């Protein structure tokens, strides 16, 4: 069932060499807190706890990548936005640093290695690399410039700025991209692989035109930086992406992690350009279904996209829900090992 370690499998897959089976990367993020039996607040604020949680999740599930993640506002917080930290839930924006346009003057240089909770992720990467790095790569998922700008300005206000104050929007996007580039360097320095997630740039939020003008340039800039660090550029965008997936494939990514789009459509549109990663439904199936339902949907993903020209990685469409039953995730990995 496993002739290669996850690290050997991913390395061979990225090099275009034969692998024993399809890679499987369910996006285990804050669910790792449940595996370790700690609060999400502890995982989000303490690097050693985050590292131990992801190490425990890897030892339980044996997925092909560890995916370190805190929240989509972590870079915005480093730029000065205040967050609210629930006792056992994901941090969220409380007070954007640029509440008024003139507040943009408050934004100064940010140290990607020491600001706010960025060291939490870096410490977690170090822990995972030390504990299981011989067997598995450690990827750090963090927000792309558009999602960071939304945390800095507030999503609703940024959406208005796109049309009423585009100069302000571009300024915030530029500063967000600079921090994202710097953080990519910090991630690589501690042994991790940087990967971009852009939930606010989803097709569920932005039109194709707005995505192309405001979100795509920053994504391209940061992915180019990641590639310059000899790392594979990976992009995840949540929600509906049917009307922008061709633009996503022009971003410089070598792999697209996709959510609400039919895999046959994705394969037809971009399968000859990028590796496709997805897309078992996280809420309806992985959280709310039975192990048999997970197996059935995962097998359909393999049938629909396993022959994609540039490769396929079996994964969840988005983050594994926090309260996911472990047996459902094990069923997903079982499909990769048995049929992949």
Textual characterization of the structure:
The chain has 340 residues and is α/β, with parallel strands linked by helices. It has one domain: TIM Barrel. Helix content is 49%, strand content 11%. The strands form two sheets. It has a seven-stranded parallel β-sheet. It has a two-stranded antiparallel sheet with strand order 2-3. Helix 7 packs across helix 8, helix 8 crosses helix 9 and helix 9 packs parallel to helix 10.
Give the helices and strands, then pairings:
Elements: H1 6-14, H2 31-36, H3 40-45, H4 47-61, E1 66-68, H5 74-78, E2 82-84, E3 92-95, H6 118-132, E4 138-143, H7 145-153, H8 155-164, H9 166-189, E5 193-197, H10 208-228, E6 234-236, H11 245-248, E7 255-257, H12 263-270, E8 275-280, H13 282-287, H14 291-305, E9 312-316, H15 326-339
Parallel strand pairs: 1-4, 4-5, 5-6, 6-7, 7-8, 8-9
Antiparallel strand pairs: 2-3
The ordered H/E elements are HHHHEHEEHEHHHEHEHEHEHHEH
Distance between the termini: 9 Å
User: Which percent band covers the strand fraction?
Assistant: 5-15%
What's the CATH architecture?
A: Alpha-Beta Barrel
Portion in helices? 40-55%
Mean pLDDT: 97
Globally, the shape reads globular
Spans with pLDDT under 50 lasting ≥5 residues? none
| Radius of gyration over all CA atoms, rounded | 19 Å
Report the biggest beta sheet as strand number plus sense, adding barrel if it closes: 7 strands, parallel
CATH class value: Alpha Beta
Contiguous helical run count: 15
Strand order of the biggest β-sheet? 1-4-5-6-7-8-9
